[in-house]
Design a protein that fits this description.
heterodimer, A: mainly alpha, B: 6 helices, elongated
Chain lengths: 228, 103
């Protein structure tokens, strides 16, 4: 039987390899926010309050491009709806926790932490105190995310505009989905979403950012029906 | 207004994390919904990637010889084979800068 601190530490070490991508992504997020002309405090607040890299970048990009708050908020919701899936998977292991512990632990559910904890929990499902793994990974990721966005905010004020750092946005998101490029069904959904975004780009209030994923998800739904 | 948007976005995001853990019985999310949620990254991110490559700052299509297209193509190839996040971003940025500054 592993002690709580050992499980926590295991969560921490399990997410460490992800820092190779989390830290640059955090730096880009902070730097881009400054480049978009937002107040440094405001850029940092997105890391603390929203705490979800992709959605933070999109949020700032949309608002700086003149999108309405409603579109920006809805996009954040669409992008982060994937957490519902993570929660549904993890809830099996967190069932016995008190309501307040559940509320606390939820704040730390992120992509990389979920991936690692999911692996660990499946393997060790007879253990107790498994939620310490989720906490260990989540808090570690949280900490490095805060530090790296702050570094990005500081660096961002020195990066000249000629470098075209904005191009780092599509590249960063490309890097996020690179693992799915070998799954043909996912590639189909990507192509549909991509072309939909080009066609719908001029839709009012920058709503292409919400409409394109919806079109792609409807496509995915239909595709799933035919797969059976 | 921006602060308000951040706050609401934060609440929405927190809700997406907390709902299935603390509020809703996970059985409520049917297998079908879960299967579709699997595709959320594939459905969301290309809508950010494509316009970021194919449109310029003024919202019109870039030329087919735009440095962004070359940079993205190289990043895509490097990403596909390396499956490495940093290699993807760095190769794309470096080739983009190479075309802008060296050619």
């Amino acid at each position: 039987m592993l002690s709580k601190s050992k499980i926590f530490l295991r969560g921490t070490t399990d997410v460490l390899p992800h820092m190779l991508s989390v830290i640059p992504f955090g730096i880009i997020t902070g730097a881009i926010g400054v480049e978009f002309g937002f107040d440094p405090l405001l850029v940092y607040a997105t890391s603390l309050i929203i705490f979800g890299g992709a959605s933070q970048i999109i949020f700032m990009q949309l608002l700086s491009g003149g999108a309405s708050s409603l579109v920006a908020i809805t996009s954040v919701g669409v992008i982060n709806s994937r957490h519902l899936l993570y929660g549904a998977v993890l809830s099996e292991y967190l069932e016995k926790l008190s309501f307040f512990k559940k509320l606390f632990i939820s704040y730390f559910i992120v992509d990389q932490g979920f991936a690692e904890s999911n692996k660990y929990l499946k393997k060790n499902n007879s253990q107790t105190n498994l939620h310490y793994h989720v906490l260990g990974g989540g808090i570690t990721l949280w900490f490095f995310w805060q530090i790296s966005t702050i570094s990005g905010i500081i660096l961002g004020s020195f990066i000249p505009e000629e470098l075209g750092l904005k191009f780092a946005i599509p590249l960063t998101f490309l890097a996020i989905i690179v693992n799915d490029l070998r799954k043909l069904d996912h590639v189909f959904v990507m192509v549909v979403s991509g072309f939909a975004s080009l066609i719908l780009f001029d839709a009012p209030f920058k709503s292409y950012i919400i409409l394109s994923p919806i079109v792609a998800l409807i496509f995915a739904f239909i595709m799933l029906r035919f797969k059976r | 207004m921006t602060w308000f948007s951040i706050l609401v976005s934060g609440i929405v995001t927190y809700f997406s994390r907390m709902a299935m853990i603390a509020l809703i019985d996970r059985e409520m999310l049917g297998t079908k919904v879960k299967e579709v949620l699997n595709y959320v990254p594939a459905a969301v991110f290309p809508a950010i990637i494509f316009p970021g490559i194919f449109f310029n700052d003024f919202g019109s299509f870039v030329e087919s010889t735009d440095p962004k297209i070359y940079g993205a193509t190289i990043a895509l190839i490097v990403g596909f084979f390396s499956k490495n996040v940093i290699a993807t971003i760095v190769s794309g940025l470096l080739s983009y800068w190479f075309i802008i500054f060296a050619i």
